[in-house]
Specification:
This protein is an alpha/beta fold. It folds into two domains: about 160 residues, Beta Barrel (Lyase, Ornithine Decarboxylase, Chain A, domain 1); about 170 residues, TIM Barrel, CATH 3.20.20.10. About 30% of the residues lie in helices and about 25% in strands. The chain has twelve helices and 21 strands. The protein is globular, with a radius of gyration of 23 Å.
């Protein structure tokens, strides 16, 4: 569910007209709904009501500080994968004790900063990382609380570029080696092994991979308790999918996911931790773009818009599908025609929707690219020297530009010409 709907013939974000917003902010722009962010967080967290659970929103999905503040005020923790994301979480007011640090390539400098801030735990991804963290922590006279990320070699049945739990993926340590690594961790200075971590991928729409993975987590938890490891928490990661194709693409409800988790872990006496990102942010955001031209080619029609692959790379990077809605509701009733929705970037791969049956958009019309709140703005770039697009947060009838559009002086002025030129 999201809070984008037609009112008076115009698509609104909550109570804000996207037509009026486009006139004020200019296109293209990202728009996020506070009500949707809050609802998705609550639906997920309430699925575990009665359990000792901590939901750590995965910042990489959407790292805007206003989004983080919105979720943090609801009690969300944060899952970070860089010092920059950690600094964003802290700036947004999220307490360090609700932050976990993931990622396969943490630097010693990042480790030291996270330890100095007193984060909840590190998700350790390899033996060399564990050794480095021990050395950093010992040097600071600190103790790093760690969970070792376990790779179960389970196919999550998702896109190959967002699979993280198979043997060929770079993430985690093989399940068969995890028990030995915990034994090693117990003897390292500055290390307190107190949790287990597993995250098998993203946009998962079938509960079976979760069920298989969590059965292995339960098995490992039992082995570690036999070894004397005092497990305080089990981190189940994230990965629950979202409906990119509207009602034709409905993933499991968080309550169904919770049943799988609780069946595996409710009797283990551990805190349950989660790292959802896409599930919370995706349907809370849209990308609004204006049609520039309609070009009739020899074999197909091209609807050329002012947003491009540098603004939303998911369609060309992941072959991702995003529903497209006209901002003018009257267009929805018009006969559809097949077209490629493309942008101005000088790349054949610059498309937002290839071979799509859509209403007959004309120059000047506005369209909303739906389910763009996750992995949209965070993956954007200035390719072709295009300005980053603004981000807008709506709450009821109010809105704020939470990342302004820069100007060309901001973009080009960061570069320097050496003296010899």
């Amino acid at each position: 569910m999201h809070h984008f709907a037609y009112k008076g013939g115009v698509l609104h974000a909550e109570d804000v007209s996207l037509d009026a917003l486009a006139s004020d902010v200019g296109t293209p722009f990202y728009c996020y709904s506070t009500a949707t962010l809050e609802r998705h967080y609550r639906v997920f967290s309430e699925a575990f009501s009665g359990a000792d659970a901590l939901v750590c929103y995965s910042i990489k999905a959407n790292s805007n500080i206003a989004v983080l503040r919105t979720l943090g005020q609801l009690g969300s923790g944060m899952d970070v994968v860089s010092e920059g994301e950690l600094r964003r979480a802290l700036t947004a007011g999220v307490p360090a004790e609700r932050i976990v640090f993931s990622g396969v390539g943490k630097t010693r400098e990042e480790m030291a900063f996270a330890l100095s801030e007193g984060i909840y735990a590190f998700n350790v991804e390899s033996e060399p990382e564990l050794t480095a963290l021990s050395e950093v922590a010992a040097g600071l006279g600190a103790t790093a609380r760690v969970a070792i990320r376990v790779n179960p070699d389970i196919d999550p049945k998702t896109h190959r570029k967002i699979s993280t739990g198979k043997a060929e993926d770079k993430f985690g340590v093989p399940y068969e080696r995890a028990r030995d690594l915990y034994r090693e961790a117990a003897g390292l200075q500055g290390i307190a092994p107190c949790g287990i971590h597993m995250h098998i991928g993203s946009q998962i729409t079938d509960l079976k991979p979760f069920n298989d993975a969590f059965a292995l987590l339960r098995e490992l938890a039992g082995q570690l308790k036999d070894d004397g490891v005092s497990l305080e928490f089990i981190n189940f990661g994230g990965g629950l999918g979202v409906p990119y194709r509207g009602t034709n693409d409905v993933p499991p409800h968080p309550d169904e996911y919770a049943n799988v988790v609780l069946d595996a872990a409710s009797d283990l006496g551990c805190r349950l931790m989660f790292e959802p990102g896409r599930m919370i942010a995706a349907n809370a955001g849209i990308l609004v773009s204006r049609v520039l031209y309609v070009k009739e080619g020899t074999d197909k029609s091209f609807t050329i818009v002012d947003a491009a692959m540098n603004d939303l790379i998911r369609p060309t990077l992941y072959e991702a599908y995003h529903d497209i809605w006209p901002v003018d509701e009257a267009l929805r009733a018009a006969a559809q025609r097949k077209t490629d929705v493309v942008g101005p970037v000088c790349e054949t791969g610059d498309y937002l929707a290839p071979d799509r049956d859509l209403p007959p958009f004309a120059p000047g019309d506005l369209m909303a690219i739906m389910t763009a709140g996750a992995y949209g703005a965070v993956q954007s770039s200035t390719y072709n020297t295009r300005l980053l697009v603004p981000e807008v947060l709506v709450k009821g009838s109010d809105y704020a530009v939470v990342r302004p559009r820069p100007d060309y002086d901001d973009l080009i002025g960061r570069e320097k010409i050496p003296d010899w030129l």
